[in-house]
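Handover notes (outgoing to incoming on-call)

Open items:
1. Cytochrome B: sequence verified, structure written out, both below. Nothing else pending on this one.
2. Nothing else urgent.
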Amino acid sequence: MKHADYFHPALRLLHWLMAAAIFTMLFIGVAMVASVSSLHSLLLAIHKPLGVMILVLVVVRLWLRFATATPALPASLPAWQRGAAHFSHWILYLLLLAQPLIGWAMLSAAGYPVTLGGGIVLPPLLPVTNDGYALLRPLHSWVALALFATVMLHLAAALLHAFILRDGVFRTMTGMRRRD
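Cytochrome B structure tokens:
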């Protein structure tokens, strides 16, 4: 794969759109768990279509990721850091694919439809089963925690590159040109 100076503009747009959606989803998820009021229904009505949106966006993003040239990491980074960066990105992609699918399967097992609004209801992924729900409910929480931790590590690495190392890695995702 050829290398580019910056990520493709569509990849950059998807990155920042997904970042906003993921942070929104994490806050909604926490609020849903902490809320026993009527606010829970509203949060759930946002949570389901937002999860489906994230699933669609990550699929599109993966396709674009393989279809476009990407910037190389700086040669100044030790090999273990380059490896960790690649590994953490693939973990993020995996978690971003798994989490909405687990949520959809969990709701299917509980007998709850995944509604997107406008009368659109997704087909169930699993038949109604208490055992399936009992397995998937805590898994959805654990994957959310893993996703939160991975996103925080990703954010910390981005800030390290942007403000301490100043090695150009952060600019590849913002598209900002270097000021000399």
